[in-house]
Design goal:
- The complex is a heterodimer of chains A (368) and B (385).
- Chain A is α/β, with parallel strands linked by helices and 368 residues long.
- Chain A folds into two domains: 2-228, no CATH class; 233-357, no CATH class.
- Chain A has helices spanning 11-24, 68-77, 91-102, 131-145, 154-157, 190-196, 210-230, 238-244, 253-257, 277-287, 296-307, 316-320, 327-342, and strands at 2-7, 30-36, 43-48, 85-88, 111-116, 169-171, 183-187, 202-206, 289-291.
- The longest helix of chain A is centred in the middle third of the chain and has 21 residues, at 210-230.
- Chain A is globular and about 75 Å long.
- Chain A starts with a strand and ends in a 26-residue tail after the last helix.
- The model of chain A has no long low-confidence stretch (mean pLDDT 95).
- Chain B is an alpha/beta fold.
- Chain B has two domains: 8-229, no CATH class; 239-349, no CATH class.
- Chain B has helices at residues 16-29, 73-81, 96-107, 129-134, 136-148, 157-160, 192-200, 210-238, 241-247, 256-260, 280-290, 299-310, 319-323, 330-344, 368-374, 376-384, and strands at residues 8-11, 35-41, 48-53, 90-94, 116-121, 173-176, 184-189, 292-294.
- In chain B, α2 crosses α3 (96-107) and α8 (210-238) packs across α14.
- At the A-B interface, β2, β3, α2, α9 and α10 of A face β2, β3, α2, α4 and α10 of B.
- β3 of chain A pairs antiparallel with β8 (292-294) of chain B.
């Protein structure tokens, strides 16, 4: 049995009303959520401190301009939140934030974490004009049916971690037939329960229907296997890697938007990664030719080895890649094997140590 | 028409790429330089990357005028010359805007041109990366057809308004194709280095190249007009703080425009530094001023800061626009701002290595109108008057 709060309005309205309640009653001093930021339909994360400004909030808008886990890290990096703040974010954003906190890149203190079962987000290229807006009706219909939503990020189509783990409040969206007129919020922690106490709505103890979740999970799993095949990344040998990264322009934007890549200065942007005249001359002598930027694949391999224990499959990397390399698929495929080897699911549990910082005498006996 | 420049008419076979490659091979084998830096097809065939090539046979895979610009050539030249030299002469085959950016980087101490011979070719523009990468095969065809007729429609928006697509003064040797008679290219030396290549090959520099000059002049005028019209239109869309904010409202603060920019060379941008990381209380205080704070913060400040830092050297290559995940017209906006700033200083980036960067040069007589309109004296005068 779980504690549930029901509001008789659509979820976007419901979440907005809850945020309003929290702000107006002084339970939080700010709400971090998606909001309209321009006249041309642009939507971005905003820290809202005035209840009036919530009118423009779009808490469940299916777009991820930045992985908010990364931004939450910046917000709480130098100083943990000194006042309570409500944060509305997607499961993968929350998981990324948990991974960052484990790396001492932020703090969950004073944060009320509100998440939802997630239908996914549209690719950033659709953020132009009213492309997302035009698809919203279709989006919510598919969410209601618990179907894979056409046109969303491939990473989202393949995502089987659409139920948040460490949220205080979880808005039930996927497969919920009544989302046109009802918001169902699972009060997942005592903290969550305490914050919404006294809000007008229907509080109840209910059983959670896990059959729907399992059905969606298996649908997504099938979709993932299909997309992996499509991306031709089954065997990541040197030939496949060469092919996969042949279009890479070396901009490193995949690492800049990655919520897990938090290094202030990436090795591959550092002086240590630059080659001197001797290198070019030697290579020229040996092979007759040398690339001006010879470390493209090296960069991606190192990035994979650094992030794969914590990759949450959010798909930001693919979305910003100017060469449309299916980075999400490559990352997720590698991440899944690595995470399986360690029996680790990133972002699931704040208390669970990062695999590479945890030594277990009995593990990897096969390796030695 | 009498030609105003020295040049050679060079007989070539096949398309422009083959003509240029044949010439480069000949010059390499004659010892005019030791190696060639040139875009080369990657093994998968769907892109190009700058390679330094010593062996004539390996030049077969080179593509001197590829349909795309995945990396700005100035960055490639900077990369191979910035950290020491080995006294090998390298001919770098780049596009005119890449040559101009290279000269700017050299002025900024980020490239060493001592052992570099810059070779440029009349440039039909490049396709946006996204368009090309959808299908390299279709892209190759689209580019080939468009460049034959100098149709700039499928090219980057800034390419279609580029008026510096030919010899610009930045290069040592220019290869002209525009208006050249079929089966020929025009070789124009722009420096002593360029002349010495041609004399080593025993080529006369006294040929009549007026047909190329005429072709370039016609397209330059056409493009200048187009550039003006496009900039005027854009100006009305972005002028003033509200419109500027709106233009960048989609910005996700990834700074990719900066990272692919050939001029932005700082290893650590101020906007990626600790200076831009604030205490939680600062964020909340800022949010309270207006009831809301867009995050990540300071996106417009970043773009304005970048404009201030690089617009005098901006060569309008369009890398920034191609690399922007949000399809912001950042290249066009910067080309407009760049043009206006450069005009104020009568500075053309990349025109000459001997021309100092405007902000490093003080001229007594310049900007008197600014001085006068802002001096305490003139304000007092106005009040009294």
């Amino acid at each position: 049995m779980a504690r549930v709060l029901r509001l008789s309005k659509s979820p976007e309205r419901g979440v907005r009303d809850m945020a309003k309640f929290l702000l107006e009653n002084g339970r939080v001093k700010g709400v971090l959520t998606l909001r309209e930021v321009g006249e041309n339909g642009a939507v971005g994360y905003s820290l809202i401190s005035s209840a009036d400004e919530l009118e423009h909030a779009r808490p469940l808008y299916p777009l991820m301009p930045v992985n908010s886990g990364k931004w939450l890290s910046l917000l709480t990096l130098r100083q943990a939140a000194t006042e309570p703040i409500a944060v509305v974010l997607r499961p993968c954003e929350l998981r990324a934030f948990v991974e960052l906190v484990k790396r001492q890149q932020g703090s969950t203190d004073n944060l009320l974490l509100i998440s939802s079962t997630c239908g996914g987000v549209y690719p950033l290229e659709m953020a132009l004009g009213d492309n997302v807006e035009a698809n919203l009706a279709q989006y919510w219909e598919a969410v209601k049916q618990g179907e894979v939503i056409p046109g969303i990020r491939p990473a989202c189509k393949a995502c089987d971690q659409f139920v948040p783990y460490t949220a205080d409040i979880i808005v039930s969206l996927l497969g919920n037939k009544d989302i046109d007129r009802e918001t169902v919020m699972l009060l997942n922690t005592d903290r969550g329960e305490k914050f919404v106490e006294g809000m007008s709505g229907q509080f109840a103890e209910e059983a959670i229907d896990s059959a729907a979740v399992e059905r969606i999970r298996s649908q997504r799993e099938t979709e993932k296997q299909r997309l992996f095949d499509e991306a031709e990344i089954r065997n990541l040998g040197i030939d496949e890697l060469n092919k996969a990264f042949s279009k890479c322009i070396g901009c490193h934007n995949c690492s800049k938007v990655c919520p897990i890549c938090y290094c202030h200065l990436c090795f591959f942007d550092s002086e240590a990664s630059e080659h001197d005249a001797v290198y070019y001359a030697t290579q020229l002598e040996r092979r007759g030719s040398v690339e001006a930027f010879p470390d493209t694949i090296f960069y991606h391999l190192v990035r994979l080895s650094h992030v794969s224990t914590s990759c949450v499959g959010c798909g930001m990397c693919s979305d910003v890649c100017p060469a449309s390399i299916p980075l999400w698929a490559i990352s997720l495929r590698v991440a899944e094997s690595v995470q399986k080897a360690y029996g680790y699911l990133p972002g699931k549990d704040m208390e669970e140590g990062l695999p590479l910082t945890t030594f277990r005498p009995e593990e990897f006996a096969a390796v030695g | 028409m009498t030609p105003t420049r020295k040049g050679t008419i060079y007989l070539s076979e096949g398309d422009v790429e083959k003509g240029v490659l044949d010439f480069m091979k000949q010059a390499l084998s004659q010892g005019c330089f030791d190696a060639v830096l040139i875009p080369t097809r990657v093994s998968a065939g769907d892109s190009v990357a700058y390679s330094l090539i010593r062996d004539e046979a390996l030049l077969e895979g080179a593509s001197p005028l590829p349909p795309i610009m995945p990396v700005q050539g100035a960055r490639a030249i900077s990369s191979i010359t910035r950290r020491g030299k080995r006294n090998k002469i390298i001919a770098a085959v780049v596009r005119p805007c890449e040559a101009r950016a290279t000269v700017e980087l050299a002025k900024l101490g980020q490239a060493n041109l001592e052992d570099i011979i810059l070779v440029t070719v009349d440039c039909p523009g490049v396709m946006p990366l996204a368009d090309y990468f959808r299908s390299a095969e279709d892209g190759d065809k689209t580019f080939r057809d468009a460049s034959e007729t100098w149709d700039s429609e499928p090219m980057r928006p800034v390419c279609s308004i580029c008026d510096k697509f030919s010899a610009s003064g930045a290069e040592d040797l220019h290869i002209g194709t525009l208006g050249a008679k079929s089966g020929t290219m025009v070789l124009i030396p722009s420096s002593g280095k360029g002349e010495s290549v041609l004399s080593k090959l025993g080529l006369s520099m006294e040929d009549d190249i007026s047909s190329w000059e005429g072709g370039v002049e016609r397209l330059t005028q056409e493009r200048k007009q187009k550039r003006n019209e496009s900039h005027n239109g854009l100006r009305s869309e972005i002028e003033g703080i509200d419109r500027l904010l709106e233009s960048f409202s989609r910005c996700i603060n990834c700074h990719n425009c900066m990272r692919v920019c050939p001029i932005c060379y700082c290893r650590q941008c101020y906007f990626d530094s600790d200076k831009m990381k604030f205490n939680f209380e600062d964020y909340l205080t800022r949010a309270r001023v207006r009831g809301v704070l867009k995050v990540p913060t300071d996106t417009l400040l970043f773009h304005i800061g970048r404009m201030l830092h690089m617009s005098l050297s901006c060569v309008s290559c369009g890398m920034c626009e191609d690399a922007c995940p949000m399809n912001i017209s950042v290249g066009q906006i910067f080309s407009l701002v760049g043009d206006r700033n450069q005009e104020a200083f009568s500075y053309v980036p990349g025109r000459s290595i001997d021309e100092a960067l405007p902000l490093t040069t003080f001229e007594q007589g310049e900007f008197q109108e600014v001085e006068q309109s802002h001096s305490v004296f003139s304000v007092k005068e106005k009040q009294n008057g």
